[in-house]
Design brief:
The complex is a heterodimer of chains A (268) and B (304). With 268 residues, chain A is mainly α. In chain A, 79% of the residues lie in helices and 0% in strands. Chain A has a single domain, classed as MetI-like fold. With 304 residues, chain B is an all-alpha fold. Chain B is globular and about 75 Å long. In chain B, 73% of the residues lie in helices and 1% in strands. Classes of the chains: A mainly alpha (268), B mainly alpha (304). At the A-B interface, helix 1, helix 3, helix 4, helix 5 and helix 6 of A face helix 1, helix 2, helix 4, helix 5 and helix 6 of B.
Chain lengths: 268, 304
Amino acid sequence: MEGLWTRWLLRTWVVLILLFLFIPILLIFLYAFNTSNIQSWPIPGLTLKWFSSTFDDADVRTSLSLSLQVGLIATALALVLGSFAAFAIHRMTWFGREVVSLMFILPLALPGIITGISLKAFFSFDGVPLSLLTIVVGHTTFCIVVVYNNVLARLRRTQGSLIEAAMDLGANGFQVFRDITLPLISTSVVAGAMLAFALSFDEVIVTTFTAGAQNTLPLWIFGAIRLGQRLPEVNVVVSFVILVTIIPVVIAARLTGGGGAARVPAAR
Amino acid sequence: MAVKAVGRPRPKGGGAVPFAALFWRLPWLRSLLLLTPPLAWFVVIYFASLVLLLVTAFWTTDPFTTQVVQVWNTSNFERILNEPVYHDIVGRTVLLAVLVTLTDAALAFPFAYYMARVASRRVQTLLFAAVLLPLWASYLARVYAWILILNHSGLLNWSLQSIGLPPANIGYTNVAMWVVFSYIWLPFMIIPTYAALERVPESLLEASADLGARRWRTIRDIVLPLALPGVVAGSIFTFSLTLGDYITPVLVGGAGSTFIGNVVFSNIGIANNIPFAAALSTIPVAIMAVYLFIAQRLGAFEAL
């Protein structure tokens, strides 16, 4: 129903929005190769020197290693707890179902600062010192939701008839799970894990409340930008973080046909 | 649907058989066993924290020892109500959240409309991916990119000067925050708006045209009302995320850019007054509760 003019206007708009969305991201990659240590446009030339100096920076390496540890542990915990929750909710029929499922989504619905400060108040009240463990607890809480959402969405689309057929053919509960259910949901579990890791690897708001003296990579970036220090290294680290968060998301999107990554992660 | 395991005893199944039989007889047992660990995590850690936050808001800190005094009182809330500086901060936060939401709705609608109703299937998929990528690309990275663009010798001023315009020094101001927030949350608005537009049945548009409505009339009376739940769903994200943010104000804001979140954070860190921070943080929660109530009335939850 759109006329030729409307189509052209809309097309122009789409191009402008795409430029708006992507120029800043491409710009960061370009700045990572900036020969000057002053961040101004246009950049005077291209170099690879900041990559080696960033890799040699002990602070960056410590933060990276902490971020990887937190991401992996939180993802593993979220994988177990989120899948359990999805399976239970999927099978539940009683009235408490709505309440419980709303509960699991709460860390996404509330602003990240609320999750952050309440965990901080909780740890401080219980006298728990802030450490790797407290960061992991914070990350796991919002990562559970991502896994839960992905697995539950897949379970809802899975045909019960396949499971019934397997049972009619004499498979027991364990065999049904191993041979039918698991293959059907496995990609959604992997996708959930990928998204959970990407979310954890980039999280900064909750982490500022639950980290003690130690820095995750986002905390290091935040500190460096705020102080305006080591910006050439920030360019490199930030480009790296973009890649690390995008690659798992691309894999997750492929596994779920785009739906998984679109179930929006608002836990920031 | 809940399909219970039929535990027909078979010798090959090993140890799993008795459990399967047990679950078959007591189907709720399986749900209970599965639900206990995640539920325990949420209740013991997350809910306990949220409840504690609410309770802490009614405690105070001893000004000399900075120890939390667990005596029930409302002095934190009185302080927020009586000191004009907090009114300004809350007002600024809410105003910017509203502005960002409106900006994103305006930017997203034509884009989502093109995606849903004009683009071919292949272009649609590509555009969808193009919206998802920046959504997931590091939050800090995208804020930082704007520092590079908006600073005095950044891309923006260079572009303006190269076409003969005076430089726009909007770095480290509220205008910068408005631009950056609108940029960061835009994909959150595009996706639900697109989803809602895609669900508008073609037949309704044809019926409208058959009845003699012109294109703009159809958009105004058919497309917009049907897309509204999607826009409202997107606005939940843009509004809530702006309301609860404090990183962007620190990085791209200036002297007069303090948000609720910044006061919360500074009371956690330097001032070490967790009760006051807790009281402050109930404000965004209360605002979001009202917002979600209105959004639910507008049918946004079905569009999520």
